[in-house]
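#data-curation
PF: Archiving a pair of folding outputs for the training set. Convention for this channel: one message per protein, sequence first, structure tokens after, nothing in between. First:
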Amino acid sequence: MNPERIFRFVLIGVFCLFSILRIRYYRLAKRAGYRTVIEESLKYSIVLSVLICYEVLTFFVYLFIPEWVSWASFSLPLWLRSVGSSLAVLALLLFLWVHRSLGRNFSNTLRIKDRHTVVTSGPYRIMRHPMYTTFYLLHISVFFLTRNWFIGLTWTAGLTLIIVLRVKREEAMMIDHFGEEYASYMEQTGRFLPLLRTRKMFKNDRGVA
């Protein structure tokens, strides 16, 4: 089979599975019936919706009208595009892990509900925002799989804008609601990647230099 076709199938499969998982856990959280006590303003939700619509649109353009974005194509060796496939699978597995750890705490907007808890299990044991890490992995894999710099750069720039707008507000909301519990959790974890000094800190707690 043509390698280009294989990589397209990988993209389609990964995005379909991402969507299925998202919908499943969204319904699980909705059925929990938790009452919202803190929620982000509408304008940030609109920015996120615009980004999602843009990504869906360009994704379908790439799949079904590729000549519209072919001007931004560039050459990549087959092994590097295969790395993109591996990153896509890794992102999918991390996405599942994140959602299983969040359970009914999941929300697709910045929202805290009355029975929410500070999740410190799974990937949240070592980083505060593994969901954003997952999406960065996915976007990097898309860059390799599509070998299209316009799609890769605009998707990643849009994701970065969303994170810049949201992450500090999200942490402020968590501190406002959970207080010292979340502030202490922040000191022990990295934001998007494991905190390198975490192991040393734990050793010091046990009296090991």
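PF: Second:
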Amino acid sequence: MSHEHEHEHEILSEEDKKFIRDKFQKELIHPVPIKLLVSDNCEYCHLMEDLLRILANLSDGKIQLTVEKINDNWKEKLKVDKGPVILIGENNEVQYTGSPLGEEGWAFLETIVLTSNKKHGLDAYEGKLKALNRKVRIETIVTPTCPYCPHAVLTANRIAIASGGKVVSDCVEAYEFPEIADKWSVTAVPTIVLSVEEPYSGQVFVVSVPKENQLIDAILKVAIGE
């Protein structure tokens, strides 16, 4: 058995693959663009590329994967200088800065599905979110062993998907990107930070899984500058 094959075997078992293929067949509707940004100084880039290629293969062509080197343009736009960064959706509305491993795995799959079928469950807020006049970024700072974190991330991702890209949800893995965790003085996870783009400002909203309606209210408020 080649080392490469072994490596693939470690990521997802045959049982996992069957579960994911069935889930994708039932629930994926529209194509899902996924962009993986990689760099040389990157511990998990190869693993993420392997994982995303497997997911793309299980999606019957619904996942449209591109892999590119993180260039100066991306560095300026995303304010990070290394990979892995994963961008999901037509408007890159969902971002993973660092790897969605460990506890984050199930919410990552769910996010791919919601990006495809748009069943975000936020119909009551969708109009308001799509009408935002400024972009709002939700950063959810997580660690792979935190069981509550994926719930917080999924809430933020659903809001981003419902907003059609007016809200960007960024799941930041604290161990891979300690500079971001330090920037917000993170001592516990999940830490939720809200920022308005142009100018890029930020404040910690909550350190826990946010209540959906409170997070949406806060987003609407910061967007109009209250």
